[in-house]
Each structure stands twice: as C-alpha cells, then as structure tokens.
Amino acid sequence: MPRHSSFSIQAPSAAVMVRPHHFNVNTDTAADNHFQASDESHKDLAPLAYSEITRATEVLQSNGIKIHLFEDLGMQTPDSVFPNNWFSTHAGGQIAVYPMKVISRRRERRSDVIELLKQQYRVQEIIDYSGLEYDGLFLEGTGAMVLDHIDRVAYAVRSDRTDPIALERFCTQFNFEPMAFDAHDSRGRAVYHTNVLMCVATEFVMMGLDMLTDTGRRQEIIARLERSGRQVIALSNEQIARFAGNAIELQGKDGRVLALSTTALATLEPHQVAVIEESARPVPLDIPTIERAGGSVRCTLAGIHLTPRD
Fold first, then answer.
1. Which UniProt keywords apply (predicted)?
2. Mean pLDDT in residue range 25-54
3. Count of structural domains, the chain
4. Is the Cα torsion angle 100, 82, 86, 246 positive or negative in sign?
5. Three-state SS for 96?
C-alpha cells in the first residue's frame, strides 16, 4: 500500500494563491531569470493566466487542498501570481516576510494576506526581513530556499536573490541549517532560484544534479538527502528547463499529492514517476501561460505550515 496516507510536516494541506487580472512577463526580472520567455507576440496574456489559476485552484480543491485565493487587480505587479517569494509560514506560528530584489516584486507584499493568516491560523510571530532591501540584501523566500522541514535544512543556490547574510539570519531565527551551493544551466548561466531545480518531498527529492558545478558539494548534498531517508531522483537539464523541479508536495484528502505542471509531468520518465507514486500521487496543473514568466506550480503556491484555529 502506498505510504502517502500518513501526515507529513513537509506537505502542507493549505496554501495561498493569487489570481492575476493583469498578468504579463516581467521585463524587470529577465536579466537573471533565464527560464522566462521573451514575449514578442504582444499577445494579451492576462485572460489566459487568469483562467489557468482559476482552474488550478479548482483542481487542487477537488483533491482536498484548502486554497486561500486572493485577487490581484494591480497593474504594477506582473509577478504577483508567485506569492511564495515574499512570505513563508512555519510550524510553531511563525511567518517570515522577505526582501525582494526587484522593486516591482516588492509591491506584491499584502497586509490582507497576513491578516487572513492571523485570523484563521495560530500566528505567534511575524519576522520581517524586508528592511534588508535598503542594504541590497535579498532572500526571495521559498524560491531562493528549498526548505526541508523534516531534517531542518535550507538548500539555497547562491545568487543575487539569495544573499548569504540574509540566509544566515533566516536560518538562525528559524532553526535551519544553511546548505548553499552554486548551480548553472547547460549554457553556463547561474540559476536564479533554488526551487526551479529542486523539490524536497517527504520520501523523495527531485533535483537537477548536473547543474551543481562543484562535484564535491554535489556529493555532500546527495549524501545528506539520502541520510534523511529520501530517494534522490536526478533530473536532466532539459527536464529542469521544462519545470520538472518546480513542484510541491501537499497533503490532500486521500493522502499526499505532488502538484506540478502538465509540462513538468510530460517530461518525466516512467521510472521517475514510479518513484514519486510510491509516496505521493502526481496532480498535474495546466499553466503554460504562467510558465512564460519563468516560474511554475511551486512558485504559485505559498504553503501554509501553521496550525488552524478551532
């Protein structure tokens, strides 16, 4: 019998999503986000993105995931559909608010999201790191870090969006061990966010190992993951480019699921899917327009690790 019925602190049963009304590919972030598509068609992407998030929300809810859906009516927040970058939640009642590199992304922070979390979940403390922006120090949430909530490790690709000082400060405050590393794509370009190449689930990890340029560090990370009892699924550079690493494990009504895009699932090999299905059921979401902005399913979901109020 699959083991995905058991509760896991790694897999939240609720998440925040943001439905955009004026979605567009953000030219401000194109310099270091090489997963982003250059939109030369000038096609109005907003209605497509709106429909994709609407449908993705319905699919997740039908699988027993509680989705808190917020609307973004603003014209100056093209990446608002990716809320996991500006805040994260943690068992014990903590919320972290993060410093963002690009000014247009700083506008995504919303007090109404924080207020809803305080109303519906037990929140003890809010730690706001956004003031580090004035010192040029950035740490873009669970895009910059892939958090292992079980083994208490924060995996982080070194980049302009993951400052080592901010990373150390977060890890000290939230009791994670930082494990930073360098990663580059097949053209030698630095990877901007960790969650495009790595997904940590309860019993497996999907990771673009070929992107880790330091072979010694790569072996350290593999050993650490295997010591935690997880099976490591090595993803190719082509699979990473098609967002196979940008997935998230969630707790559904019938057990754990792996939310990922249809693009990502289509690029996985049968033996890789078989490993996933031993502990989680893949739930594909069709979001090709959203993916043009350089992020996929993991980026659209800010998981809630807080305790619900009675």
1. Transferase
2. 65
3. 1
4. negative
5. strand
**pLDDT tens-digit readout, 148-166:** 999 999 999 999 999 999 9
- The token pair that represents 43 in the structure block: 């096609």
> Which residues form the domain of 101?
14-303
Which two structure tokens, joined as six digits, stand for 119? Answer: 């109303």
Distances (CA, A) of 94 to 163, 181, 201, 215, 268: 21, 26, 21, 35, 35
* b (16+ CB within 10 A) / e for 260-283: bbebbbebbeeebeebbeebbeeb
Dist. CA 162–CA 213, nearest whole Å: 17
Residue 51 pLDDT greater than 50, yes or no? yes
CATH number of the structural domain spanning residue 216:
3.75.10.10
Domain contains 4: no
Residue whose token pair is 């559909």:
81
Which amino acid is present at 95? Answer: I
Residue 111 predicted with pLDDT over 70: yes
What's the rounded mean pLDDT across residues 216-233?
Answer: 96
The fraction of the chain above a pLDDT of 90, given in percent, is 84
For 210, counting Cβ atoms within 10 Å of its Cβ (0-12 exposed, 13-18 middle, 19+ buried), the class is: middle
The DSSP symbol for 92 reads T
Report helix, strand or coil for 32: coil
Q: Where is pLDDT greater, at 259 or 44?
A: 259
pLDDT of residue 38: 52
Residue 105, in any domain of the structure:
yes
pLDDT at 64: 97
User: Mean pLDDT, the chain, as a whole number?
Assistant: 92
Residue 25's pLDDT is what? 64
DSSP state of 221: H
Helices of type H across the chain: 46-62, 103-106, 111-120, 141-144, 164-174, 215-227, 237-241, 262-267, 270-277, 288-291, 297-300
In a domain, 241, yes or no: yes
Q: Is residue 3 part of a domain?
A: no
Q: Are 220 and 232 in contact (CB under 8 A)?
A: no
